[in-house]
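S.,

Sequence below, as promised.
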Amino acid sequence: MAEWHRIPIDEALTRLATSLAGLGRDEARRRLAECGPNELEEQVRRTPLAMLLGQFTDFMILVLIGAAVVAGAIGEPGDAAPIIIIVVLNAVIGFAQEYRAERAMAALREMSGNYAAVLRSGEHLSVPAREIVPGDLVLLEAGNVVPADVRLVEAVHLKTVEAALTGESLPVEKLSEPLPDPNVPLGDRRNMAYKGTVVAYGRGIGVAVATGMGTELGRIAAMLQQEAENKTPLQRRLAAFGKRLALAVLAICAVVFTLGLLRGEPLLLMLLTSISLAVAAIPEALPAVVTITLALGARRMVRQNALIRRLPAVETLGSVSYVCSDKTGTLTLNRMTVEDVWPNGLDPGDGAACTSSPRSPVDLFTTALVLCNDAHEDSEGGLVGDPTETALLAYGRTCGVTRVEIEARHPRMAELPFDSERKCMTTFHRDGDTILAFTKGAVEVLAARSVAMRVSGREIPLDRREIERVTDEMAARGLRVLALAMRRWPRVPDRLESDGIESDLIFLGLAGMMDPPREEAAEAVAQCRNAGITPVMITGDHPLTARIIARRLAILEDDGDAVLTGQELAELSQEEFEAQVEQIRVYARVAPEQKLTIVKALQDRGHFVAMTGDGINDAPALKRADIGIAMGITGTDVSKEAAAMVLLDDNFATIVRAVREGRRIYANILKFITYSITSNIGTLVAITLAPFWGLPLPLLPIQILWLNLLCDSLPGLALAGEPAERDVMSRPPVDPKEGIFAGGRGYYAAGYGLVIGAAALAFQAAALRMGLPWQTMVFTFLVLNRMAVVLAVRSDRTSLLRIGIMSNRPLVGAIAITFCLQLAVVFVPTLNPLFHTEPLSAPALAATVVLAMGMVLLSEIQKGVLRWRQGSSR
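The prediction came back faster than expected:
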């Protein structure tokens, strides 16, 4: 299939055993039976039931189900119900995400039209696109979806939009001549048209060389089916964390049960205590907190034009170290713009600021670029047509020259359409008693056909060297350069032939155009670098254009930053490519499978990769990337289905805002884990060490379960709304290999957990000696102490006073509600028998509150020491 572009038309027809009259109907039916329908194959899909049951296989989920069974077995259905609700909620969300992901292939199959025009036995027929077979002669017209991969036999002003397949931002002009180079990139195979692309202009005939899964679109579908979605960093960390936690809890519970029996405690009491301790030690609210935190984050992101399709992707953003971004529409405006003009008499580089006025020497230049133009304004004032021509009309507007107004004075009388062989077009317009002919086209063509140039309202001899110098200077800045010229006629020529008409021209000037970078993109790139994230441009456009845009955005900054083309990439082995992938900042003219290669190479080097894209060709890489990001405006359904996030404004700056939100969310999830584990360790230490201190069990089973249910719910969920810390985008990305307890969190949880447990036992011993209701006091102390811990973990370095207690009002409200509920358990008579509590005196309650809040003071001292050490080390 890769060789079809190299061979002449006659040889292609011979190989396919067809002719310019097309296949016979019987032969077409035979080939359809042999080759199969022109459709994308679909893998065997998992049934919805299998998807749903698969949500209950995660180890942490199994532990939670076990905890619910235990809670119900010991007569605590109130504790079992929330756990079951959490598990079911998690399963429903996971099922919805997986079911939606399965629709990617369905969207891919919709990319081809339902019917196609073919030539069979010399007769024009309209047949279902699924019945196209290799050897069919396919007729193409503007607006058609190309139904198969075809080798073009005829191309009359034919242009196709291939952005979805190759990344090329402009319609591609087609031809029928063979291209002998065997290494021509997909985007440069101009004698081929590919399944799923759209005919934008002109007409053509092509012989089908590949159908179904044999097409370029089919190859992408195969890659998409092969790529499994990666688990997010948090999913991996929580899976490992859940297994270790379950084993540790079982071991501790066994120790507590054994020690209790050795001390002579009742068997049933120790059994219930051990089971309750196991339930309490596992943070069953964790899946709910994670889900709600991600959901709230996703809601915030939508307001910032980032639509999250799969919730786990939210936290993945915090680990991203490379952002591989498409150029067109994401880093640029996706709109051709006149960047510079060179009407004779002006110096190049002055920019595209218009100096035209009705009597200025550049007025004819502006008139020419507006009149020699097939673009037009729609009813709402928008510009419709070829991107290059709409750019010229837009520039004319800035000069005060509109198509409607100027054409009313100079109506078009005739035209010589653009032709790829002559590389120019000419239009004829009435100008009083004479005719003005304006010609637009390639600089080298118009310069060769011109005999003079117009400067300051008069004609002077042509200076081809100067024209060449200015053209080279514009091209070096990545501009696409067009020339304009004119000739005056007494009347419209009788014979509209190029040789007689497009000669003896008066050269008017040059227009340099490009799709310029977004204004906010440069700042977003700078923020990426500051956050330790490397931005990389991957585009189907020309290497020079890509290089210029990358330099303007500072994606290419150092001398060591490299630009690699798809052809150069194809010549490298995987090992050679991976050795230099971290130095490459721009990829140009890449094929679909090469985008996937780039993502894999970066992942093999230990990076977490965000990949943006809008086309069919991007779908496999979007699915393979740690977070795939599709374009909401220009993106195809295929890319959106394969992606985890959709940019509603197609703006690179939105990615940076999403990364900031992702880092905030991941930090808040870690804060909840730190809070929950620290508090649980404190409870475990108190219960485990009590026998060694000669103390009775400090808590009863119902108190352990209440402590766990009350404190892990409201305060834990309120942490989801914790604002981002000020330096969140000045820190490096989260290391993907980093565990839950990396960065000192494990030491923090263990250290403070020991302190809390020791404080609880000391408090219990003191209350026993004083004859106070020690169990109620220890119970209340551990509840209120958790409120102190939740305040302490809001930041691991910034003082609570600087953060501001009221900066997270939901958390303050959660603490207040928890405090009131605990007071009700202590002071409401009807609840005392249920929870085995008794009212506390004012001094006893005050002592409990003061001791519990001591955690905040201890944390503030520790943070102060940390800041002092960091300051003194600078």
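The two ends are 62 Å apart (CA to CA).

Coffee later?
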